[in-house]
């Protein structure tokens, strides 16, 4: 393993740590925040990062002692223009790699999405490629994976203005034939969506796979929909979609899903809306009670706060929901308070998961480059500090990108965090004429 070159020293106004270069790829982390780039295994954090020397993506280990990344030399994808969704399932590392299309462009055939599987040697602490199989043959905007209780891997994406799915056999390796969610052919056609919509998949409640998608077709059925499949049922047997939120402008294509536990029925979704009035919610936390199959919506931040690209993390040791998103930069930095779609700084807002309320949650800067915009924060699918998920004493690690300098940045909290820190919100008001971020 070779250590990456040391980053430059922190400057006044910085928060977090500048990491290695990702020069050579336009997509070091990906966008829309449905996907995850990190995982925790065997007492260490790991990441799927770009290696500038070999010009491909590698498995990196995070050295907590030096707060730096170490390249293991194990490649995950040779293609520069790819996004990835990473799942560590306790025994196997699964990396879904796909060529992506930009906002407003349809999926394009002829670009295979690949899932590579890696074993882990606990003695040598190394990963070895087991297999590489094809999920679909489409270039898409976003694609996510998860594993059900029978060992089957599932994937979802938007293709041809419909929500698509695919699954492996119980070996978790070989994929079947992609198919549209059955709601696409239902009388309401709720699985039919716009070219800008996306979906995400998650295992929950012990024996189910759920899929959530946005719907922005410009009528009263617009919103954020949820449907689930019971493990072992036919692939196309899915529940009737339920609207987690409903109404025009209530949906957007940013989404991040988490579950409380593999046998727990609670699912949490950090989502973005398309509202424009300053007091309306721009990012929300949606919470599922599977016993009643109902969702509740909680405002994380309003349009006036100019948030974007959000992630929710569950800290089981403190029973906190920790959300991270891009907001305008704090005072005493370049472009402080500017609201745009290029980035800003990464802030945390957190709340107890049993009494969700962000109205008084402090907004704490976690990753700030005083001179440049930070964007696209990501982490792991796993819950934090969870013995059941193999993350006991994991703390928290968040990874983000500074596009202007082609550098990774990270924030590491080694404790069972609760969103603590300086409660003072240093953010200045966004510029009044700034456009709402996409």
What is the helical fraction, as a range of percent?
under 10%
Strand content: over 45%
Q: How many domain units?
A: 1
Mean pLDDT: 92
Low-confidence stretches: 419-436
State the distance separating the first and last CA atoms.
Answer: 39 Å
How big is the Rg?
A: 20 Å
CATH superfamily: Fucose-specific lectin
* CATH architecture classification name: 6 Propeller
Major β-sheet profile: 5 strands, antiparallel
Q: Largest sheet, order of strands side by side?
A: 1-6-5-4-3
Overall CATH class: Mainly Beta
What attributes does this structure have?
438 residues, 29 strands, 0% helix, mainly beta, four-stranded antiparallel sheet, five-stranded antiparallel sheet, globular, Neuraminidase, disordered C terminus
In short:
With 438 residues, this protein is mainly β. The protein has one domain (2-413): Neuraminidase (6 Propeller), CATH 2.120.10. It is built from no helices and 29 strands.
């Amino acid at each position: 393993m070779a250590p990456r070159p040391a980053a430059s020293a922190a400057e006044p106004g910085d928060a977090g740590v500048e990491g290695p270069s990702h020069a050579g790829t336009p997509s070091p982390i990906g966008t829309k925040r449905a996907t995850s780039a990190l995982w925790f295994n065997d007492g260490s954090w790991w990441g799927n990062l770009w290696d500038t020397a070999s010009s491909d993506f590698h498995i990196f280990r995070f050295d907590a002692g030096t707060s730096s990344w170490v390249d293991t030399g194990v490649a995950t994808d040779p293609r520069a223009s790819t996004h990835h969704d990473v799942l560590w399932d306790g025994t196997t590392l699964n990396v879904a790699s796909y060529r992506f299309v930009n906002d407003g462009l349809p999926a394009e055939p002829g670009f295979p999405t690949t899932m590579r599987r890696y074993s882990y040697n606990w003695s040598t602490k190394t990963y070895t490629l087991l297999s590489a199989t094809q999920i679909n043959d489409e270039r898409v905007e976003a694609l996510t994976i998860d594993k059900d209780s029978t060992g089957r891997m599932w994937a979802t994406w938007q293709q041809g203005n419909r929500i698509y799915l695919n699954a492996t056999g119980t070996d978790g390796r070989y994929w079947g034939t992609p198919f549209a969610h059955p709601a696409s052919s239902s009388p309401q056609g709720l699985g039919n969506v716009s070219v800008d919509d996306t979906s995400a998949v998650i295992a929950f409640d012990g024996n189910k796979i759920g899929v959530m998608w946005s719907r922005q077709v410009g009528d009263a059925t617009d919103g954020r929909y949820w449907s689930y499949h019971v493990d072992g049922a036919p692939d196309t047997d899915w529940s009737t979609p339920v609207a987690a939120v409903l109404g025009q402008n209530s949906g957007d294509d940013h989404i991040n899903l988490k579950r409380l536990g593999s046998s727990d029925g609670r699912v949490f979704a950090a989502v973005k809306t398309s509202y424009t009035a300053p007091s309306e919610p721009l990012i929300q936390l949606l919470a599922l009670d599977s016993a009643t199959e109902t969702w509740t919506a909680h405002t994380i931040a309003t349009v006036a706060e100019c948030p974007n690209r959000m992630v929710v993390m569950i800290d089981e040791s403190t029973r906190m929901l920790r959300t991270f998103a891009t907001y305008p930069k704090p005072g005493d930095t370049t472009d402080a308070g500017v609201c745009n779609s290029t980035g800003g700084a990464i802030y945390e807002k957190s709340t107890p998961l049993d009494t969700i309320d962000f109205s008084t949650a402090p907004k704490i800067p976690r990753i700030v480059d005083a001179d440049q915009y930070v964007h696209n924060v990501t982490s792991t699918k796993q819950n934090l500090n969870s013995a059941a998920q193999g993350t006991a004493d994991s703390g928290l690690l968040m990874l983000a990108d500074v596009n202007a300098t082609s550098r990774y940045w990270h924030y590491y909290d080694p404790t069972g965090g609760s969103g603590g820190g300086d409660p003072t919100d240093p953010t200045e008001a966004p510029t009044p004429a700034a456009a709402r971020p996409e």
